[in-house]
């Protein structure tokens, strides 16, 4: 049976190690969805991860400036997000491509895709395009769940490789 093609961002799995509240300001020019990987800007506000930025974590809750729960936060809208931001947190995500067992322990970038505004769920995926060098995430293993197998659109378990709060290689701060 083939894997289902259903991008859903980066969902925390296992023990939820930490969730922290962050602001989103009007300078944010992209939509933020649940399970989006985000980065913290130098002014302290967050935005959805784009291209070469370091990762803070994955969005688990979105609220308006008035504290009302939202499906997603539109671009240029002030709000608050809650982020699974511990450097050791594991996430599961879909692979954009055909996953092979040989891909385990490789470093990969992510696809920068806007979320689904109907469901409020991210459409970011692991970009299976070569496993060398400094990349956003490290693929640890194939997610063990019914209906998931090696091949196209597989779901895998990852950790953040380029984390804003990590120590050591691959980690840089805001400044």
Characterization of this structure:
This protein has two domains: 17-84, no CATH class; 89-160, no CATH class. The protein is globular, with a radius of gyration of 15 Å. 38% of the residues are buried. The N and C termini lie far apart (48 Å). It has 175 residues and is mainly β. The protein has strands at 11-13, 19-24, 32-33, 37-40, 46-48, 57-64, 72-73, 79-84, 90-96, 98-99, 107-110, 126-127, 137-142, 151-152, 155-160.
Estimated radius of gyration = 15 Å
Instruction: Provide the spatial order of strands within the biggest beta sheet.
Output: 9-12-11-13-15
Q: How much beta, percentage-wise?
A: 35-45%
Spans of at least 5 consecutive residues whose pLDDT stays below 50 are: 171-175
Class by alpha and beta content: mainly beta
Q: Please count the beta strands (DSSP E, at least 2 residues each).
A: 15
Question: What percentage of residues falls in helices of 4 or more residues?
Answer: under 10%
The residue-averaged pLDDT reads 91
H/E topology pattern? EEEEEEEEEEEEEEE
Name the overall outline.
globular
- Straight-line N-to-C gap: 48 Å
């Amino acid at each position: 049976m083939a894997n289902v093609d259903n991008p859903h961002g980066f969902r925390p799995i296992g023990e939820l190690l930490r969730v922290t509240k962050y602001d989103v300001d009007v300078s944010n020019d992209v939509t933020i969805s649940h399970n989006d990987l985000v980065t913290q800007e130098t002014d302290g506000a967050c935005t959805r991860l784009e291209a070469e930025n370091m990762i803070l974590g994955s969005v688990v809750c979105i609220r308006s400036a008035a504290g009302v729960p939202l499906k997603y936060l539109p671009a240029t809208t002030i709000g608050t997000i809650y982020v699974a931001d511990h450097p050791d947190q594991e996430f599961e995500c879909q692979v954009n491509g055909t996953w092979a067992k040989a891909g385990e322990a490789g470093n990969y970038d992510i696809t920068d895709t806007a979320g689904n505004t109907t469901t409020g769920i991210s459409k970011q995926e692991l970009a299976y395009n070569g496993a060398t060098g400094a990349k956003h995430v490290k693929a640890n293993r194939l997610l063990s769940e019914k209906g998931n197998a090696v091949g196209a659109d597989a779901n895998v378990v990852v950790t953040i490789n380029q984390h804003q709060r990590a120590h050591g290689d691959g980690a840089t701060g805001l400044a």
